[in-house]
Write a structure and sequence with these properties.
Helix content: 40-55%
Order of helices and strands: HEHEHEHEHEHHH
Number of helices: 8
Radius of gyration: 18 Å
Strand order of the largest sheet: 3-4-5
Strand content: 5-15%
Number of strands: 5
Distance between the termini: 43 Å
Amino acid sequence: GIPFALEAVGRLRNEGVNVQVTVIGDSKGLKREEIEKQKIQAVLDRYDLHTVTHMPGYQPHAKMIAEAHQHHIFLSPSVAASDGDTEGGAPISIIEMAASGMPIISTRHCDIPHAILDGRTGWLADERDVDGLVNHLRWLYKNPQEWRSVTDRGRQHIEANFDVRTQARLLSDIYQNLADTV
């Protein structure tokens, strides 16, 4: 989803919004990942984003968290790959950033809508919907006074539903129910 995120940022920048972007991660040299990296570079070229985009490559978790604290919005759309691969679940980075109180924009992909409740704890667009991503970014840019209520609900939602102790208890209950039926 990174090319779609960067295209949304590029469009917003063309509207005169000052942006800075950090993309953490890189390809591992695999053909599919190299193709995705080329798509990312093409979007950076098309929107002249090279001067406002920092790409430090893979980083340890602590560095990712430190980078997040230097930014205002976590834009992390996901899409199904052309071969149908979805990687499954909700990205842990989205859950962690929501728990940090950062505004989240993502997509209705796999389990992301369970972690980010559209319009209540963050904002979701359909997969590959650059217009939707731009609209969410634009709204956040124009309404910073509204962020707090959404990000507070986001943090509460993550604490209530994604805390490791809560999840361990739920998983234990599932295993116990299975054991009781055997």
